[in-house]
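Shipment paperwork, digital attachment
Item: protein structure file
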Amino acid sequence: MGTVVMHNVVSVDGFIADEKDDIGPLFEWYGNGEVEGVAEAIAKAQELAGDRVVGVAAGDAGGQALALGLVDEVAMDVVPVVFGKGKRYFGSVDSQYLLEEPHVVIQSDRVLHLRYKVRR
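Attachment content:
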């Protein structure tokens, strides 16, 4: 089966949107909605993808997938902006999850691309 990667752009203080759910400057270089049935959606995506990568948006959907143990890797595109308040990258997850050291670190123009394996 293919790898499941949770991914989204994130501010340096850990937000994927401001307190009004606006993505503002995060996507100047590049939404989230209500999601139900995360496990079923990922299972279907994996079935269709075969050995290819399945992407899961960060936020509430990604946080649910992480909590269910369905995320293999976490990818972040960190942008140099500070929101202070807003929608968090991992949604409302309230448990601790450990990630390995980043195995991808790419610095680009106004964005830092990071990728971590989820420690099992």
